């Protein structure tokens, strides 16, 4: 299902991956220069990327299709890069959100 959705036409997967790259670069800016780096937006992006990562991770592990596995792994990496970019410019609220979502606990298992 995932491979049909993202590979059909060829461009969807590439565009989606580039959007994730753009978002990760967006969060590499200093919080002083980035007006969207506040508690509300940060929680939204942490939740969005973490849940997408979990879904893709579980889908990739259970898939028997090699193309779908590769796509899942690539997109998992892109979501993790977004989470790392958010964590890099962390503050007290960001740390609390990562702790609340149990991100580190899942990634270290």
Quick summary of this structure?
The protein is built from 6 helices and no strands.
Give structural notes.
The protein has 109 residues and is mainly alpha-helical. The chain is 78% helix and 0% strand. The protein contains six helices and no strands. It is globular. It starts with a helix and ends with a helix. The N terminus is likely disordered.
Strand content: under 5%
Helix content: over 70%
**What does the oligomeric state look like here?**
single chain
Largest sheet: none
Keywords:
single chain, 109 residues, 6 helices, 78% helix, 0% strand, disordered N terminus
Topology:
Blueprint: H1 2-7, H2 11-26, H3 39-62, H4 66-88, H5 92-101, H6 103-108
Helix pairs in contact: 2-4, 3-4, 3-5
């Amino acid at each position: 299902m995932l491979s049909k959705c993202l590979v059909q036409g060829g461009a969807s997967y590439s565009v989606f991956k580039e959007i994730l790259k753009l978002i990760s670069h967006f969060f590499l800016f200093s919080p002083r220069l980035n007006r969207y780096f506040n508690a509300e937006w940060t929680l939204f992006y942490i939740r969005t990327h973490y849940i997408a990562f979990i879904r893709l991770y579980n889908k990739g592990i259970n898939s028997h299709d090699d193309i779908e596995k590769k796509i899942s792994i690539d997109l998992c990496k892109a979501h993790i890069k977004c989470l790392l970019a958010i964590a890099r410019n962390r503050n007290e609220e960001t740390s609390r959100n990562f702790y609340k979502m149990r991100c580190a606990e899942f990634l270290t298992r």
